[in-house]
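FIELD: query
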Amino acid sequence: MLYAISQADLVIIPTQGSQLDANEAGRAIRVVMQSQKLAKNETPYAVLLMRTSPSIRSRTLTHIQKGLMAAGIPVFTAQLHERDAFRAVFSFQQTLDGLSPADVSNLDQVKINVWEFVEEVVVRLKEGQGVGRDQDNSSVAGVG
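FIELD: result
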């Protein structure tokens, strides 16, 4: 994992909206920090909140997000919501574009949600928050 982090232009640390997951994200952040010390290279990272509700924002999630931000930990604005389409990708062995709206509900909303995340990753990379080497060879590592 340390090697993957040292080679990445941006490390994405996925976490769900529970304190147990936030604690594990903290452990992953410590691994990123350890990698930075060993490589003498600052690898940008950010926490991605996953499996969140698109309609209801829990107090626990709000508390976790505020705590991360108060600690100076970068957190993606975009969140990947809990949606059946993400499970359907594996069940039907299709990409999101290959899934049928007849088989999966809210497919258009899922695609919008994914594009919001992708756009934020691209912005972070372009702003130099994730560009450490050749920009044409950008790499992203997921830790968690």
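FIELD: remark
The beta strands are 10-16, 45-52, 80-81, 140-142.
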